[in-house]
Amino acid sequence: MVSTFNGNFSGNLPILDGKNYDKWCKQMKMVFWYQDARDLVKFGVDPLRENPT
Predict the structure, then answer these.
(1) C-beta separation of 1 from 30 below 8 A
(2) How many CA atoms lie within 13 A of 7 on its CB side?
(3) Domain residue spans in the chain?
(4) Are 1 and 9 in contact (CB under 8 A)?
(5) What is the reported pTM?
(6) Residue 9 and residue 35: Cα distance in Å, rounded?
(7) What DSSP assignment string belongs to the chain?
(8) Cβ 1 vs Cβ 13: under 8 Å
(9) Contact 19/48 with Cβ under 8 angstroms?
(10) Tens digits of residue pLDDT in 3-32
């Protein structure tokens, strides 16, 4: 699924079809980890304060 040689993903991301949740979940966690986005998905982001610049 992930190519570590050039830092890019292959075009075959997992598709959730209702029967493969466990495998899909594990694969998506790896995708997010690879992109350093896992904490954003797991914990969310802080809301913007009023009148952000």
Answers:
(1) yes
(2) 2
(3) 1-44
(4) yes
(5) 0.52
(6) 10
(7) -B-TTTS-B-S------SS-HHHHHHHHHHHHHHTT-HHHHHH--PPPPSS--
(8) yes
(9) no
(10) 444 556 566 888 999 899 999 999 988 888
